[in-house]
Design brief:
Pfam families: PDZ_2, PDZ_3, Trypsin_2. The chain is mainly beta. The chain has 9 helices and 29 strands. The chain has a 6-stranded antiparallel β-barrel with strand order 10-11-12-15-14-13. Strands 4-5-6-9-8-7 form a 6-stranded antiparallel beta barrel.
Amino acid sequence: MQIMCQKRGRGRSRAEMNNANVDGDKGDDARSQSTTYKSLQLKRPDKKNLSHDLKNGQDMDVDDLQDGSFLNAVVKVYCTHSEHDYSLPWQKQRQYTSTGSAFMIGGRKLLTNAHCVEHHTQVKVKRRGDDTKFVATVLAKAIECDIALLSVESEDFWKGTKPLRFGCLPCLQDAVTVVGYPLGGDTISVTKGVVSRIEVTSYVHGSADLLGIQIDAAINPGNSGGPAFNEKGECIGVAFQVFRSGDAENIGYVIPTTVVSHFLSDYDKNGKYTGFPCLGVLLQKLENPALRACLNVTSNEGVLIRAVEPTSPAKDVLRAGDVIVSFDGVPVANEGTVPFRFSERIAFGFLISEKFTGDLAKLGIIRGGREMNVVTTLKPRVHLVPYHIEDVQPSYLIVAGLVFTPLSEPLIDSECEDSIGLRLLTKARYSLPQFEGEQIVILSQILACEINIGYENMSNHQLLKCNGVKIKNIRHFAHLID
């Protein structure tokens, strides 16, 4: 089984990588990209925060979607990508091209998927029925939620255009229509289906867990970044990935407008994307009665804190062994869920995703059988091994032919997990950073020369110390060498 997303995600083992991919139509020069998962938190802003022309629309017959003028707001994206070579960090890989979809949201901005413009060197867009491609600028990229914001300076591009209206979170079995420019043709494509599920979903490209809409409408490579409409002609989300399995068909995923609203509000407020925050703890379900009794938890509520991340503000108020029973007054069940709409339940992380970086969270906890309330600040997670390295050249240092570089998921993908070694992989995937800026520095390879004769075959070993001093990061190592 696969979750398709033809750009890179980061996270777990090679076997898990083979089960995940993000939709997007690549050119022939594109090399295959592995994708993976990693947990984060998610979001559901209030409807009043859905700016950018969020208005109530009139009911529209789905059969008339082909004639809807709002389809003219959907454009085709042409992107040229140039990714860094992480095995040879002083150079880049060969360029490749891909196509995707985007749509107008007001303020002369376009919305698409982040994986459609990943490692971009040039982005162009073309309107429906037009023969001219216009150069676009990437204003912001949100890797976690796989959203990117584009702008086009040309006045000709915006003549006679009308932005899409955003709708609210749909209900189960609501009709949905996906519009975009998938492979198989150059004109706009329309597919229909229904909403089959709404829950916290693994976002392959961003290696995050956020609210997602599952639909049964066909989503194919090239549909990425295209809008999904309800029967009123309102945009209810952004198509971004599909699930492939021999036992399942027509399972596609849409980024809901609640997640889109969080991204846009973050960008409008800060002038850039600051990310989804996290609580900074590792949690465990508390369904076992014996475990609850051991922790002096008499109710059926709460989840156990297994560990607190050293770089998180939560380290000042939370401890391993605490039981979280409420978040901002919302009770947390022992299987890690909280109340959702219509008597439904959803993963606890959903409440955290509604917050923004720097927001405060009030937690009800049980510590040693005693109930208490604490307040902590929410910040984005600090990763010991980054999942994405965007728009900057990978750091490296060459000393006597020895090539040192920080360990990253792109490097692991490039080198293949077998060559990295189980011990280093385990540290990369499960270790927590002890301070901000900490890196795992490795000896990537040795460039053969007279001074390193006899060591030419060494590669992918962690550098622990230099002259007896423990290495903090690549910059610290360079300072010690100087």
